[in-house]
């Protein structure tokens, strides 16, 4: 069996200067790249997810409530939807887009350009263990890791390679992940912009 790294939503709009920036996002991008360079054999496979909005309806709010609706972000065709330049993508074998026409937080709601979903891709590559990193710990990382565990993958979140929005939502996320049997490695850090 094999293991995989899932890089969640390390995109310009979620990093400093983006429309929905999370403090420390650029640091997460650089940290993931450094780890991939330092430990090239740690994962058999590396995949990534992208928020990839065309018209996600009520997911965009004016004004946003920052619970169910958010400022416009990661719109297809904009620089905000692109991976952050600090993220080295040379090892990324597949990208799973999510949220084109509805809210989507988990990478397991996404699909590759050929339509294959993340769970099927991982199984086709004999993956049984996943490590999850990216943005934001308390939203899309949380949802992706919970779905990975539900799908039967042994799941770890590398907390030092995630960035969280707020202490309150981070605490809720960590309790949910722990309760679902997700292994949490490292210390959670709330970074300021």
TrEMBL record:
Residues 4-183 form the Isochorismatase-like domain. It is an enzyme of class 3 (hydrolase). Pfam families: Isochorismatase. Its EC number is 3.5.1.19. Pathway: Cofactor biosynthesis; nicotinate biosynthesis; nicotinate from nicotinamide: step 1/1. GO terms for molecular function: metal ion binding; nicotinamidase activity. Keywords: Hydrolase, Metal-binding, Pyridine nucleotide biosynthesis. One of its GO terms (biological process) is pyridine nucleotide biosynthetic process. InterPro entries: Isochorismatase-like_dom, Isochorismatase-like_sf, Isochorismatase_Nicotinamidase. PANTHER family: LD05707P, PYRAZINAMIDASE/NICOTINAMIDASE. Belongs to the isochorismatase family. This is nicotinamidase. It comes from Micromonospora humi.
């Amino acid at each position: 069996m094999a293991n995989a790294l899932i890089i969640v939503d390390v995109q310009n709009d979620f990093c400093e200067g983006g429309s929905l920036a999370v403090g420390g996002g650029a640091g997460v991008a650089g940290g993931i790249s450094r780890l991939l360079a330092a430990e090239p054999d740690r994962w058999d496979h590396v995949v990534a997810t992208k928020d990839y909005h065309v018209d996600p309806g009520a997911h965009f709010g004016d004004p946003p409530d920052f619970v169910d609706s958010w400022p416009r972000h990661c719109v297809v065709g904009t620089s905000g939807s692109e991976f952050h330049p600090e993220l080295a993508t040379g090892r990324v074998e597949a990208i799973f887009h999510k949220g084109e026409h509805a809210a989507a937080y988990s990478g397991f709601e996404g699909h590759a350009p050929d339509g294959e979903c993340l769970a099927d891709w991982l199984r086709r590559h004999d993956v049984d263990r996943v490590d999850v990193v990216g943005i934001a710990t308390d939203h899309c990382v949380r949802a992706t890791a919970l779905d990975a565990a539900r799908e039967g993958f042994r799941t770890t979140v590398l907390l030092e390679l995630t960035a969280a929005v707020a202490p309150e939502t981070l605490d809720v996320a960590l309790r949910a992940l722990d309760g679902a049997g997700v292994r949490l490695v490292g210390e959670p850090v709330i970074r300021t912009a």
